[in-house]
Fold this protein.
Amino acid sequence: QVQLVESGGGLVQAGGSLRLSCAASGSIFSINVMGWYHQAPGKQRELVAVINSGGSTKYADSVKGRFTISRDNAKNTVYLQMNSLKPEDTAVYYCNAMIFTTPYSLHGMDYWGKGTLVTVSS
């Protein structure tokens, strides 16, 4: 069993900062790609940022220069530092990871956390 648990969401004023964390636990051999998605009310889930095992990152245009994704492989944890938050950032943020549970698999499997709510007030 593999589980992803997000934390760090909450209520913050515009211009403030939050740091989201997502820890993967369970039967894990290795983790390839980790990322953050968000879903605002009435909208579909969208990619926010991803980071691969080599440290390469990609960001949605809306968060470039404001958010930073990072990971701690020893802790199987991915972080999202969110600065200069805007009301438009309000959404449920979901952690995603491609995880290998054995050393024999050719491809990892996608796992999702339950989400953490970020609310940015103006």
Notes: The chain has a mean pLDDT of 96. The CA atoms of residues 27 and 97 lie 13 Å apart. The radius of gyration is 14 Å. DSSP finds no helices and eleven strands in the chain.
